[in-house]
Amino acid sequence: xxxxxxxxxxxxxxxxxxxxxxxxxxxxxxxxxxxxxxxxxxxxxxxxxxxxxxxxxxxxxxxxxxxxxxxxxxxxxxxxxxxxxxxxxxxxxxxxxxxxxxxxxxxxxxxxxxxxxxxxxxxxxx
Length: 126
Known about the structure:
By secondary structure, the protein is mainly alpha-helical. The protein contains 5 helices and no strands. The protein is elongated, with a radius of gyration of 18 Å.
């Protein structure tokens, strides 16, 4: 069962474009590491939270950059083709959306970590 999930994830990583998907995966682990490090060791000066914020935003923008590059290549191929089916266009758009989707996922996880760190540092008051 676990091998099936890992296989599906690696398939999607390849489909979304390894040049964009694998750096997003690495940045995901960087965000997790920064968040855990700041949670366990503290972040008095706020540099870890600020770095986490910047890395998460970069990750999301990197995903959208990948989508733009992919769409430009897809539109070049479509304009060169004499006839193309709607299924091919839909499949290409689906693949083009994988990198920004993963980038947004990493961004949301990092933002959730920032919220947890903010609550830990300054508990909510009534």
